[in-house]
Amino acid sequence: MGNILPAVLSISILVNGKRPIRCKCSRLEMLQGIFYRENSFGEQQPLLHFPTARQIFKNCCSLLCAILIVAGFVREELWAGERHYSLDFAGSGRGLLIETESDLPHGSGLGSSSILAGALLCSLHKLSGNKEQLKEDKLINQVLQIEQLHTSGGGWQDQLGGCISGGAKIGWVESVGERKCCWRSVPLGGELIKEFNKKFVLLYTGKTRLAKTLLKQVLLSWARQEPQILVTVERLAKGAWKAEKMLIEGKFPSEVCTEYNELKKIFASNTEPSQVTELKNLMEKENLIESAWMAGAGGGGFLYIWLKQTENNVLEKLENLLKSDWRWKEMDIWRVELENKQPLIVK
């Protein structure tokens, strides 16, 4: 990639006025094993019970079990040629209740699984008094381990954006020496923050798509050193560094976001659903937007939108546009605010 360091620019946000992902861990004195209660997008899931550590290892591809293994709450050891499993907080009648809640739909493209993993890791380490593991660099690496066990194969950008302090951050991997994620905060001026809170919105497309398949396709192309993929990754990295410079200068990089969306289509042609393309073209024709680009791997989930003007009626016009055609009936607008301090709060 020449002299361009691979980089990603992230911005922490509140969705509809709050942090959309929450979790809670509690010790149980009278029950044994691990209990899990999940509320996902307003739907309460059945209570799960893992009475033994062996059951957790048998389900290590699930997000919860991968988190428990990486957090060290369950252990696997080899004794005399046989595998033995144990709960690390084990003891007669000792258990753990884990509760998670997400206001985001499945496959949102906002990195919710990585952010949830980071939040739950912090909660578990706080509960066990393991303060050393709460350091930000350790958190990023542990979520990376979880992604591999979970078989989603995700990178470091989602937990950097959603779990690490600072509203806007640029992250990169050094090209020489130890391969590790580095990052720094990007200072944002007061006027830009006000503009962001007025002009930046999310549009839920009503469709879901997991990034796993796309990621495998991209990694295979990278391993083959396909020239088009190498050039595209370099252009994406250049865009991230350019966006950082523009933010520091007080300008939102809407044109970089547009280019980013087009570059993603090189990785996979179905990154942007045809329905979304039709809506984008209509929004541009109506002079409502400066830029719109798919979140995450694309193919579904959320569409990021940077509105054309700051007048109050622009958002109202956009909402009326969505109501005017049955093609957009499953789409709706979600409000966004910049979280400029600490996106992840551990109590």
List keywords for this structure.
single chain; 347 residues; alpha+beta; Ribosomal Protein S5, domain 2; Alpha-Beta Plaits; five-stranded antiparallel beta sheet; 11 helices; 15 strands; 38% helix
Describe the structure in your own words.
This protein has 347 residues and is an alpha+beta fold. It has two domains: 14-172, Ribosomal Protein S5, domain 2 (2-Layer Sandwich); 188-338, Alpha-Beta Plaits. It contains eleven helices and 15 strands. The protein has helices spanning 53-58, 63-70, 112-128, 136-149, 157-163, 190-199, 212-223, 227-248, 254-267, 274-285, 313-323; strands spanning 7-11, 13-15, 21-28, 33-40, 43-44, 48-50, 74-79, 82-87, 95-102, 168-173, 181-185, 200-204, 289-294, 302-307, 332-338. A five-stranded antiparallel sheet has the order 2-15-12-14-13. Strands 3, 4, 5, 6 and 9 form a five-stranded mixed sheet that branches. Strand 10 and strand 11 form a beta hairpin. Helix 2 (63-70) packs across helix 4, helix 3 (112-128) crosses helix 4 (136-149) and helix 8 (227-248) runs antiparallel to helix 9. The mean pLDDT is 87. Keywords: ATP-binding, Kinase, Nucleotide-binding, Transferase. InterPro entries: GHMP_Kinase-Related, GHMP_kinase_C_sf, GHMP_kinase_N_dom, HddA/FKP, Ribosomal_Su5_D2-typ_SF. This is GHMP kinase N-terminal domain-containing protein. Pfam families: GHMP_kinases_N (PF00288). GO terms for molecular function: ATP binding; fucokinase activity.
